[in-house]
Design goal:
Blueprint (H helix, E strand, L loop, with lengths): L5 H9 L5 E2 L1 H10 L8 E8 L11 E5 L10 E4 L3 H8 L4 E3 L5 H4 L7 E4 L4 H4 L3 H4 L17 H10 L1 E5 L5 E8 L4 H17 L10 E8 L5 E3 L8
Parallel strand pairs: 1-10, 4-5, 4-6
Antiparallel strand pairs: 2-8, 2-9, 3-7, 9-10
Amino acid sequence: MPKISKKIKQIKKEINLHKEYTINSALNLLKKFQSTKFTESVDVSIHLGINPKKTDQNIRGSTILPNGTGKKIKIAVFTQGENIKIAKKYGAEIAGGAEIIHYFKNKKKIFDIIISSPDTMHIVSKLGPILGPKGLMPNPKTGTITSNIKEAVKNAKKGQITYKNDKNGILNTAIGKINFTNQQLKENIIQLLIELKKLKPSTSKGIFIKKLILSTTMGCGIIIKINSIYET
């Protein structure tokens, strides 16, 4: 049996994992037990009222968080011609066509977002076995397949996140860093919920946002009273 750390023991004493907390109470608890070694991400898990076995009910999209993610985003862009210069000008780490494939095959670089213009998707498709399992394959629903390379790179640098539900109908994504203020984190969550509600499938009946859980990279999950997110 793995040894339970002192930190986890203390967390279990002070946090009821079955109780619903207000957003501010939950964030204060997460901050109380934050790591002293690095700045943890704040992650949200949202249980959606969908049937993930039905393709028309799966949720996939992107949004720009008003306060960003607090993370330096590394971007690779597959494109041609003048768009290569544009991508690099606005912050892409690398940009090009077939000549940049080796960065992924040799695993020399780790990228957070892959953007592609439509005319180079035939190149990107060859990387499907590598990018697919990592959730990095460009997709028009997340704005990562686009002819507007400038806008796509700028949005990604601003704090754009992409998301999709898993096989259990749960959506997981980071919404900031633990050193953000409570208000900044709340604003980011609200923006995500606004975008999710726009994507609610017409075939999905009943409650759409069923449960919301917040956690940090090294912490435990805390169930949130959803209505408290909108309280000042």
